[in-house]
Specification:
By secondary structure, the chain is α+β, with helices and mostly antiparallel strands. It is 24% helix and 30% strand.
Length: 256
């Protein structure tokens, strides 16, 4: 079966930008796992892998990502950030979120918003999940994966809180979505490499900032408070009863 996204077309559309090699496949176990293996083998920065279907897709905390064949788009990129302090790598999933928001708005005409740290929402429902992983090799690498619900039907939703571009009325093709997201990622990644302060831009696109939230760290530790922004390392800042805390991980719930 041919992939929904034509490899040659996508490579030409991306031009001579950051993405040095583009591969598209109809099916992958996990695009992140495939690129991680290539990274350990020495693959260079800028490799892109796009799949119409994942049979063993993963989310944060080893959660399983599933969708019927052809209903979602998996896009993973391999990056080797030069001379960037390790603590700044926390921004990589946030950059991916900004890229998906811009890409879905441009290609799909939808009002996409961010949920810290790794979800993209439309109307409060999840349309995309993001997973960033550090890969240890001769030159450390990052693999960033984006799973976007494109053609998923309402009857196939894994949970009622999910959605897809098709459900939201978008007619954008998977190829158009992949192109728009990767072009946006190129731009955001370049700004990050240049040392630009992206906190204000992220907060403006994030539906978490300005809300009362609960951050679940463990069964016995779930502080609540007002999300007031992100810090220089991309951590969520929450004003709690005991003071403002910075979170680099945790399940965030938007409270009414």
């Amino acid at each position: 079966m041919d992939p929904l996204v034509d490899e040659g077309w996508l490579a030409r559309e991306l031009g001579t930008r950051r993405w040095t090699q583009v591969r598209t496949v109809a099916e992958s176990g996990s695009t992140n796992a495939d690129l991680a293996a290539l990274a350990r083998a020495g693959a260079p920065s800028g490799l892109v892998l796009v799949a119409d279907h994942q049979t063993a897709g993963r989310g944060r905390f080893a959660r399983v990502w599933t969708a019927p064949p052809g209903a979602s788009l998996a896009v993973s990129v391999l990056l080797r950030p030069p001379a960037v302090p390790a603590q700044r790598w926390l921004w990589l999933p946030l950059l991916a979120g900004l890229a998906v928001v811009d890409g879905l708005r441009a290609a799909g005409g939808v009002d996409a918003r961010l949920k810290w740290p790794n979800d993209v929402l439309i109307g409060g429902r999840k349309v995309c999940g993001i997973l960033a992983e550090r890969v240890e090799s001769a030159e450390p690498a990052a693999v960033v994966g984006m799973g976007i619900n494109t053609l998923l039907a309402e009857a196939d939703l894994p949970v009622p809180t999910a959605t897809s571009l098709a459900i939201e009325g978008s007619t954008a093709s998977p190829a158009e979505v992949a192109r728009a997201v990767l072009l946006a990622f190129d731009a955001w990644y370049g700004r990050w490499l240049a040392g630009e302060d992206l906190r204000e831009a992220y907060a403006a696109a994030c539906d978490t900032v300005g809300r009362t939230v609960r951050v679940e760290l463990s069964p016995g530790d779930a502080p609540e408070g007002a999300a007031v922004g992100v810090d220089a390392e991309g951590r969520l800042l929450v004003r709690t009863a005991s003071g403002t805390r910075a979170f680099s991980a945790g399940d965030v719930w938007h409270l009414r």
